[in-house]
Specification:
With 212 residues, this protein is mainly alpha-helical. The chain contains 10 helices and no strands.
Length: 212
């Protein structure tokens, strides 16, 4: 697969330059606007998670590099508009990445990775499954509750404020419906998700009794 993604007739892309572009754009535009979808989410959570999950699979160097760029660009559409941000991100990738030496085929792969994070997730390829799982691996990790709180703040800022009971019901339902696509993500995330569902259910009962 790697030989297909990186033809011998095409020079190696400037992956470092593309990563710097994404980091700069996200940090400059998203740092204050969004409590959750910001550069920290991309570069401290999703990209490391993608590389970790990739380590359990037999990926070539080219595939691993494209996965990194897909992770770096997966929320870049937020710099324009949170609505349909995946499609916007694909447009940004098509506009920007040729300047960093990416071929049309490589950009299509990256576009697929960006779209793989769209909800409800429906990844098609092994790389897209890794990307989808990396974006939501935090659902089963210790950082879930701080991250979940940041998401709640962000949604409130965007006009989707919820009271405690509605928020807990929304999140419990989301966790119960979500599933990981890779074996490694299921191994890491499923036990944590069950734990978080139990804790949120406990909080829901407490909040319901307090409002009774």
């Amino acid at each position: 697969m790697g030989s297909i993604l990186n033809s011998n007739t095409h020079p190696k892309p400037d992956h470092a330059g593309a990563l710097r572009y994404a980091a700069k754009r996200l940090s400059m535009i998203l740092a204050k606007q969004y409590a959750y979808h910001n550069s920290a989410h991309t570069f401290d959570q999703v990209l490391p998670a993608a590389l970790y999950l990739a380590g359990s699979q037999s990926l070539g160097e080219d595939e691993r590099d494209l996965l990194m760029i897909g992770a770096a660009f997966h929320d870049i559409g937020y710099t324009v508009n949170p609505q349909n941000h995946e499609e916007i991100g694909v447009g940004i990738a098509h506009e920007v990445l040729p300047g960093y030496g990416y071929s049309a085929e490589q950009i299509e792969t990256i576009a697929g990775l960006i779209l793989a994070t769209r909800l409800p997730q429906s990844p098609r390829t092994p790389l897209e499954k890794i990307m989808a799982d990396a974006d939501l691996l935090v659902l089963g990790q210790e950082a879930f509750f701080p991250t979940n709180g940041a998401l709640r703040v962000e949604l409130a800022q965007l006009g989707r404020d919820m009271n405690e009971i509605d928020w807990l019901l929304f999140q419990i339902n989301f966790l119960k419906q979500h599933h990981y696509f890779t074996k490694e993500a299921r191994k890491i995330g499923d036990p944590g998700k069950k734990k978080h569902i139990r804790e949120m259910t406990r909080r829901l009962i407490h909040a319901s009794l307090a409002n009774y």
